[in-house]
Design goal:
Helices cover 43% and strands 19% of the residues. By secondary structure, the protein is of the alpha/beta class. The chain has two domains: 129 residues, Nucleotidyltransferase, domain 5 (2-Layer Sandwich), CATH 3.30.420.40; 170 residues, ATPase, nucleotide binding domain (Nucleotidyltransferase, domain 5, 2-Layer Sandwich), CATH 3.30.420.40. The strands form two sheets. It has a five-stranded mixed sheet, sandwiched between helices. Strands 8-7-6-9-10 form a five-stranded mixed sheet, with helices on both faces. The chain binds adenosine-5'-triphosphate (ATP) and magnesium ion.
Length: 333
């Protein structure tokens, strides 16, 4: 009988320290320590992030092992985020994982953070069938990933500048909302009219995206509106949020749907932090339903950064004996 794979996974690419334990691909625990220290700065401060990871990593790993009911000496492998991310943050998680791997004599497995966002779909059931087309919309990326099997990921479209998450966060900043503003825009949008204001998006070649024009359009629109009516934001906030959300959701979904039609794909999904957006979740379900396709949306806890998604990616690599050398270098981009 094949031996079990009990795997510890660590995610520390940005400002969340997370540890998860998986047994044969099943998530036994998934603990996350968020960093509040950045709120006052309106964005993540890299040096503060790495310091906070150092404080959080041991307690978070301890909690994950405890909840899973697993002892350190029962682990068969340790997976960690190798990149992309903030270098100081990645160094904390990867050094910890490599130290553990050396001391326990178990393999370490470096995982690509963006592959892991897509692989979050393979944690719960039902799992997508191949070919599977996934729209990854996060704080730093917007890309369309085509999976023909568990081990292949082809990026067929991507943003040329900002990411969808940045478009949400930058709009929130213009509206005077705290960082990260994406979830707040989502909340305020519930009360607003999504068709009240129109914003232009850029049509790019192939399946690519660009958010810089939209961002500038929103900036000028708000400047003019506030000049004409100083109370504009107070009066119109929910409508602006709903209209911006509607614009971004339609824009990111359009290429996913067009690409799926072009390639004859019927299994589509969303991943990354912005896939927590309620407008996007509803829209992909509705569009897939209309066409008789299957839409996959990860559980909320697996959308934003988390170690369970690193763990499931690490598990498939473990099955392929795709281990990393001890001098595997973290990469920022
Ligand atoms: N409900 C929501 N609506 C819109 N945006 C959201 C929502 N929840 C989270 N986000 C956005 O998701 C982003 C964070 O996602 P995630 O944690 O995957 O990004 P990241 O890890 O910083 O970036 P990357 O994965 O590209 O390195 C932020 O921009 C945040 O505003
Ligand atoms: Mg992420």
């Amino acid at each position: 009988m094949a031996t079990d794979c009990i795997l510890l996974a660590i995610e520390s690419s940005c400002d969340d320290t997370s540890a998860a334990v998986l047994k044969n691909g099943e998530v036994l625990s998934n603990k996350i320590a968020n960093q509040q220290v950045h709120e006052a700065f309106g964005g993540v401060v890299p040096e503060l992030a790495s310091r906070a990871h150092q404080q959080h990593i041991l307690p978070v790993v301890d909690q994950a092992l405890k909840q899973a009911g697993i002892r350190m000496d029962e682990l068969n492998a340790v997976a960690y985020t190798q990149g992309p991310g903030l270098m100081g943050s990645l160094l904390v998680g990867s050094s910890f994982a490599k130290g553990l791997s050396l001391s326990l004599g178990i393999p370490s497995i470096g995982v690509h953070h963006m592959d892991a966002h897509v692989m979050a779909h393979f944690i719960d059931n039902p799992k997508p069938q191949f070919p599977f087309l996934c729209l990854v919309v996060s704080g730093g990326h917007t890309q369309l990933v085509l999976m023909r099997d568990e081990n292949s990921m082809e990026i067929i479209g991507k943003t040329r500048d900002d990411a969808a998450g940045e478009a949400f966060d930058k709009t929130a900043k213009l509206l005077g909302l705290p960082y990260p503003g994406g979830p707040l825009i989502d909340k305020l949008a519930q009360e607003g009219d999504p068709l009240k204001y129109r914003f232009n998006t850029s049509k790019m070649e192939g399946y690519d995206y660009s958010f810089s024009g939209l961002k500038t359009g929103i900036l000028y629109f708000l400047q003019d509106a506030v000049k004409a009516n100083p109370d504009f934001l107070k009066e119109e906030m929910p409508h602006v949020c709903a209209s911006v959300q509607h614009t971004i959701v339609n824009y990111v979904l359009a290429n996913l749907l067009r690409a799926a039609e072009d390639l004859g794909i019927q299994d589509i999904g969303i991943a990354g932090g912005v896939s927590a957006n309620s407008g996007l979740r509803k829209a992909i379900e509705a569009e897939a339903g209309k066409r008789g396709w299957r839409a996959y949306i990860p559980d909320f806890s697996y959308c934003t950064d988390n170690a369970a998604m690193i763990g499931i990616t690490g598990y498939y690599k473990f099955l392929n004996q795709d281990f990393s050398s001890i001098d595997a270098k973290p990469f920022a981009r």
